[in-house]
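Morning!

This is the sequence you dropped in the shared folder:
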Amino acid sequence: KDKLYLEGPSQYRYDGVYEVGIVRDQQRRSLDLKNTGMAMTSDICTIEDIHPQNKQDVGVRLANIALKQYYNVLEEEVYGPLFESAKIVRNQIHVRFTHDMGLASKEKKIKLFEISDDDGRWYPADAKLKNGVVLVSSKEVKNPKTVRYAWKSTDIATLYNEVGLPASTFTSE
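The structure's back. C-alpha cells below.
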C-alpha cells in the first residue's frame, strides 16, 4: 500500500493513494527562507513519470525566478498562484492566492480541491471563482475545517494565473 514502483528507466506506477502533497506543500512553505525559489512543473510532466521530460521549460521557469528575484532584470510574473489564506464562511472556505493576476481554470470546472470535516476526513470539493477568490465547498461537509489543492501525486494543476503558470499544491492546515 502507498508504494511507488519503478517500471523501467523512468516509468512509475502508483499503488494506493501515494500523496506527495506533503512534500510539495513544504517546498512552498520554504519560500519564506532567504535565497529560495520554486517552479511548479505539474503541468509539464505526466502521471507516468515524476520527472518532466521537458527540461527546457523547467529551466526557463527557474532561470526567470533567478532573473527576477536575484538579478532584478525581469519585470514579468515568474510564479504561479501561491496559497495566501483560507477563511471559513458558513459552509464554504474562501481561498486567496498571491501571484493571482488573471486567476482562471483551464477547464470548465476547477478541480483538485478537497475540504476536511471535524474528524479530519477529506472530501472532494466543488470550487468556483468569484472576484479573484476561490470558493470551495462540499455537499458532504457541513462545517469545513481545512482545504487543500492538488494533493495527490497524479494531480495536474488546473488553476493558473494570467501568464499560464500553475497554482502550487497547498493545505491550509
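Headline: The longest helix spans residues 55-69.

More detail when I'm at my desk.
O.
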